[in-house]
Specification:
alpha+beta; four-stranded mixed beta sheet; three-stranded antiparallel beta sheet; 9 strands; about 55% helix
């Protein structure tokens, strides 16, 4: 069986990377983080016009008609670029929320018992509660926003809000197959983590080749070589797991992919920070932003504990 990317998939990935490089370069990324995150509505509409949110909707419904593997490639590039916002929730709810497919509506993710990111600017909420899912909008959403309280976010690109621990009182449109939505959301989050892990590896290798100590690039030193090698060893199994789960859509494989990708994103960012040394701890370096986003994302859609339960249940 051939799992190499097709020509169309490679073109899709190159197009996404080029679009993000042109519309969300480093300066714009830093500006988004320095203003405290939030959704840039103009950029959101541009993403909608490019088909980001309608990627998996059928062509008859105005979508692009692609599948989960293509979504995984898209979200891998999103992870590389540190693009903020509830992109996965908006794509997954695009067929149920008016304007979401076109980038005119922002759909935030709400999981029972957890803070909600980007709540203040959301037009709708995708609420996951166990194996069920629903969309909360309109009056129920406004009531929830009124009862929510902002909390300090570890990730400067993701403002967080504390909501009531029980969301059952906020009615909304029920969506079919909530378990599938959680599985696919976990996989898309894993793809973002993969992109972040890969970018951390690239940044570490580049810095190791440019930074000199004692008359030689620091990449010539064994300790730095080991750090970079370890980053590659984490990233590539995560890539295989994410791509395989995107092909099969299997919940168990998605859980394994999320575990591996979370570990790769967090640990690669930590090791990248070590390769950068003292400057890696400064606000001006980007590595701490990837580390904070990776920490936050590891607690969304499917935590490590939940993923381990899925894998353990499959073994039983």
């Amino acid at each position: 069986m051939d799992f190499q990317l097709s020509e169309d998939q490679r073109a899709l990935r190159a197009g996404i990377r080029g679009l993000l490089a042109g519309r969300f370069d480093r300066d714009r990324m830093r500006a988004a983080h320095e203003r405290g995150g939030g959704v840039d509505r103009a950029l959101w509409r541009e993403l909608g016009a490019a088909g980001f949110f309608a990627l998996r909707l059928p062509e008859a419904a105005g979508g692009v008609g692609l599948g989960l593997p293509e979504s995984a490639l898209l979200f891998e590039e999103i992870g590389r670029a540190l693009l903020p916002g509830p992109l996965a929730a908006t794509q997954l709810a695009a067929g149920a929320v008016k304007g979401a497919a076109e980038g005119e509506a922002v759909v935030a993710l709400a999981e029972t018992g957890r803070p909600v990111g980007h709540l203040e600017g959301a037009d709708a909420l995708l609420v996951l509660d166990g194996g069920s899912a629903r969309v909360v909008a309109g009056r129920a959403l406004r009531r929830l926003v009124g009862e929510a309280r902002p909390v300090r976010s570890l990730d400067p690109g993701t403002p967080l809000w504390r909501v009531p621990p029980d969301l059952s009182g906020y009615e909304g449109e029920a969506l079919p197959d909530g378990a599938r939505l959680r599985c696919e959301g976990a996989l898309l989050a894993a793809a973002e983590q993969l992109g972040s892990a890969t970018r951390s590896l690239e940044a570490a290798v580049q810095h190791a080749g440019e930074r000199e100590q004692f008359g030689a690039p620091i990449g010539a030193f064994q300790a730095v070589k080991h750090l970079c090698a370890g980053m590659l060893v984490r990233a590539e199994p995560a890539r295989s797991a994410v791509y395989a789960a995107a092909v099969t859509g299997d919940p168990v494989e998605a859980a394994g992919a999320k575990l591996l990708a979370d570990e790769a994103a967090v640990d690669n960012a930590r090791d990248c920070l070590q390769v950068h040394g003292g400057m890696g701890f400064t606000w001006e370096a980007d590595v701490h932003l990837r580390l904070k986003r990776a920490w936050l994302r590891s607690g969304q859609w499917l935590t490590a504990a939940d993923a381990e339960e899925v894998l353990a249940a499959d073994l039983g």
